Amino acid sequence: MATIHDNDELLLARIGYKQELKREFSKWSTVSYAISILGILGSVPATFGAPLAAGGPATAVWCWFVGSCMALCIGSSVAELVSAYPTAGGMYFVTKHVVPDEHAPIFSWVQGWCNLLGQTAGVSSVAYTVSQMLLACASMNSELVDGKYSYTPSASDTVLLSVILLCVLGVICSMTTKALHRIILWFAPINTISIERTDQTVAATFCICFVLLWFTPDKQPATWVFTRFTDGSGWGSKVFSFLLGFISVAWTMTDYDGTTHMSEETHNAAALGPMAIQSAVIVSGILGWILTVSLCFCLTDFEGILNTPTGLPAAQIFLNAGGKLGGSTMWGLAILVQFFTGCSAMLADTRMAYAFARDEALPFSSFLSQINPYTQTPVNAVWFVVLFSICLNCIAIGSTQTATAIFSITAPALDLSYVSVILAHQIYRKQVKFIEGPFTLGRWGPYINWISVLWVLFISSVLFFPPTVPVTVSNMNYGICVGTFIAGFALIWWWVAARGRYTGPRTTDDIQPVPTEEPGTGYGTME
């Protein structure tokens, strides 16, 4: 019989799993991981052009503000649920404990596949944005010929580089947990300088905002930044164009349970996971808004920057403010942060794939759920994610505009996978006994839960619309096609191979509450 060494292993055992992964993640590496998986300094510049093109500067500014508030509701709802069941499966595992037993298999199956698709689309889209950013840097450092850069990135260049980057990320994520802990511990300090129990000062982000505003001449007035709305989408409605602008904040501020996928490698995960989720959403929401506002003030030539040959408006803003050397230096920091985001996102995705395969929900589950004897990490699951991500990125070979599909499927797939569990928790809360963890929302829980559900259902339907009209083969939003294909495959696999065999996350029947590593020091309850 296996020996249980501490409360983390005891809780995991009572949930129904044996401790197989090594717990090396501490409080600060967990918070660092949560902040890095959002990667504001890289994600905002990478996606700044989408809301800008859809509805102008005011759309970019206010979409981020509203979207961040909604993200806090979703993140808090997720934090409450995963605090009770901190496993590598994240919200997928929680599903089993918020629905009646007879519905658990199909609910878990749908939620797991939806989450896996969203996670993998997130990994592939981050790799794609890093490729875009690297090639934009190459473009703005190329020679000017007749007023134009001699090198302009093509769709095939971007996809090829993204494939290489995905393989590099795969190598990193195949390392031992101790090595990953040491690497990730430095992710957030690139963005922030953390001061325990006081505040978190965002060094790099504030420095870049200051430099951009200081060195950009003829900045736009505040009235233009905060009130200038346009109908750049061509849908004939500034309101609908505004709604399309949510793609940036929706894509960036998601993957809330990414931190929980590392729960089986984290000390005191039931308390630290929720704390990390909320800290990351609050810090990232504030910083992202400040950075977005700063970029909008620097839109000295709106049309020229929007149609920059670098392919990314933010890259042109950096170049205008700092010249080739200064602009490339600041842009390089943003690229580094976005690369770190890719590492964090792939780590979460691979742990989800491992947890899903452990419950025999994937093809070749016995192979994908194996733990490498040397690294003590799920290396097979890592390279499954790499291959899946490469397949998704191939959508963008024909045109950079078709890459919208990768971004568009990420947020809806992930957020819908979260709110499906949140909704089930509200519907069945009187039928299904739910043992709360160290963190709860208290009496505010139902209100926050319902706000999250309604928001995600609304904004997900909007994000599947084509970004511009008239719709063509090159600008079509193929996100709905990707989602439909994966959903069809998952349902066929359910009926052909899993129905009657798959029972949902495999656990023991009786779960008893256990104390955290530090009794009485749980994260807290919102009353």
**What is the CATH-assigned architecture?**
Up-down Bundle
**How many extended strands?**
6
- What structural class results from the helix and strand content? mainly alpha
Our count of helices gives 21
**What pattern of helices and strands is seen along the backbone?**
HHHHHHEEHHHEEHHHHHHHHHHEHHE
Q: What is the share of helical residues?
A: 55-70%
End-to-end gap: 42 Å
Explain what you see:
The structure is a single chain. The protein has about 525 residues and is an all-alpha fold. It has a single domain (about 20-500), classed as Amino acid/polyamine transporter I, CATH 1.20.1740. It contains 21 helices and six strands. The chain has helices at about 5-15, 25-40, 40-45, 50-85, 90-95, 105-140, 155-175, 175-185, 185-190, 205-215, 220-225, 240-245, 245-250, 270-295, 300-305, 315-360, 365-370, 380-395, 405-425, 445-465, 480-500; strands at about 145, 150, 195, 200, 440, 525. The strands form three sheets. It has a two-stranded antiparallel sheet with strand order 1-2. Strands 3-4 form a two-stranded antiparallel sheet. It has a two-stranded parallel ribbon with strand order 5-6. Helix 3 (about 40-45) crosses helix 14 (about 270-295). The longest helix has about 45 residues, at about 315-360.
